[in-house]
Amino acid sequence: xxxxxxxxxxxxxxxxxRAEAAPGTTxxxxxxxxxxRAVVGDEDxxxxxxxxxxxxALHVSRDGGVTLTARADRRTRDRLVVAFEVSDDGPGxxxxxxxxxxxxxxxxxxxxxxxxxxxxxxxxxADEVGVRTGVERGNTIWFTVEFLVDPxxxxxxxxxDCRVLVVEDNLVxxxxxxxxxxxxxxxxxVVADGQAAVEALEKQDYDLVLMDCQMPVMDGYxxxxxxxxxxxxxxxxxxVALTAHAVEANRRRCxxxxxxxxxxxxxxxxxxxxxxxxxxxxxxx
Length: 285
Prior knowledge:
Layout: E1 2-4, H1 6-20, E2 26-31, E3 39-41, H2 43-60, E4 65-75, E5 79-91, E6 99-100, H3 113-122, E7 128-133, E8 137-148, E9 163-167, H4 171-183, E10 187-191, H5 194-203, E11 208-212, H6 220-231, E12 239-243, H7 248-256, E13 261-264, H8 269-279
Parallel strand pairs: 2-4, 9-10, 9-11, 11-12, 12-13
Antiparallel strand pairs: 1-3, 4-5, 5-8, 6-7, 7-8
Helix pairs in contact: 1-2, 2-3, 5-6
């Protein structure tokens, strides 16, 4: 386990792939700007997995493009799950439906040697592996890896550059939450129900959503499930439940439907500061 820069690894793999690419095939990268500058993990295995996938993508994308992506998927104060993706413009990869497949599964008939070697590599590094494939063309193979991260190494962001969405139907609670968040230096917006939250997230990205659970029109549980459905595996917006019910069953329900954390109302300024700093890395003053 060593400390390394995920973005640098992705760029290095892309440069090697460009040297192998056939004329007319492009190789591009997309690196999540919120990724910390350094993580601790198995750089060699991550690099090898990406190289094997890039080689496979080049093989099936003779006249198209290959894209390597790294994005933050889930995070806490000292751990970060990163989703890596390699997309190609080749013909459909698998006859089966898209989805997550077990790392220990058998190599499917018709898969390339590169992909077979990649699966073997993933036994030792990945938490989860999956495929998205187009009807006629285009495939994305993705995998997630958990890293350790020093909170001090997170990319520095001013709180004012971070957007927080408060989903709360009570006018008094709205004003209190806005005042506390603004005092901590963050940009904040408020909507009054879950449906409005879903619509707001369709229009723009937020760094954190503070979600009341009991609301008219659409409650926080239904809203979270719909947000997660729409996000799929392309993004994971941190959602923290705001609820007056401090019981374990309620906390468990929040986490099971896709929320990331749980705060009991009334929320103090110190609690709110902790939540913001835990779920918006690098934004602490």
